[in-house]
Amino acid sequence: MNTADAGMHHALAVIPAGTSFSYGSGATVVPATPFVTASSGFSYTVSATNDPPTSPSTSRAILTSTAIGPNGSKRVVQAYIGRSIASWAPPGAVYIPAGSGSDANFNTEGTFFITGNDTNYSADVNLDGRADSTSAGPHTAIYGAATFNSSVNTQFVNSLTSTEKTKLQGKDYNASTSPVTPSVFTSTVSINVTDLVNGFKNEPGAVQYLSGLSRSATDCPTPRPNPPLSTCVFGTDAAPQITYIKQDSGTTRFDTGSTVTGSGVLIIEGKANFFGNFEFHGIVISLAQGLRGHEGDDSELKFKLKDDARIFGTLLLGPTGDQLKFDIKDRAAIYYSSQAINPVQTNWGSVLPQSAKLIGWHEVMQ
Asked: What is the number of other CB atoms lying within 10 angstroms of the CB of residue 224?
């Protein structure tokens, strides 16, 4: 029984985050694996089926863990699993599921800041489009930047100067090492960013701009008028929205001197430069296909934050495995914020990928 139980816990650990299960009538989750105990010769195998198995995608699945002993004895445990409904947290304040061509270029003279420490924000009392203050949030810290594999992680860390390493804080950040250990680590959580984009943009009420979008300092001036122009607001904390911008050529731009705000989910499919006093509360997803462009040409970057641009929540880069070049310069900042993500989960929680959770289990008599 202990061996079969170990197999079940192994399966729960390796099942990727998602919104449903697609095992159909049968799939192997954990191949035959030795179970290290005081006595050798034990192993387990775990398979899964959808519940019901006739459906290609279900909210519940059945795991079967089969344990084999050294004398050929067999124990079988079955468990029902679903998706967690816990508060959703991304792998990092910035998630970089990149391939070997990823890169990160920082302005060494800037005071940019990225933190995976949960951060609350206050109301915008002075009506300048920005939260007036920040404070510590209630949730456990996540990584400042979560990468997808060790080679990308190494490349990312090596691209930082000793000063820049102090600007990436969060889980496992260590200011006592020399140089400082930035909060840039390889995550065990995998998110298919393209699937997430498709889920959000197909939600009812999603606001879509299919021919790109730009906002200048004239369109959305700083200081901004009161009340702000509706064309400069993409959702509010009280009424968040999903905003999808498709930029087939050129670059989505919120220019220096502009004030653009939003809350909810902001998806940019194409290259984007967010400058000025841009501030967004929630989930920002950059999905730009193809090569990352030239180092010295800002218009070629996939995603860039500059000036006083701020994101509270998380920034997810995609597509998975692609070259994900992005810049963050000047005073721009990205804060993990459960406060900013909570309205997304409240309104569109079924789209967010969650880990598998155990609902119930029983031994199958042989």
From this structure: 19
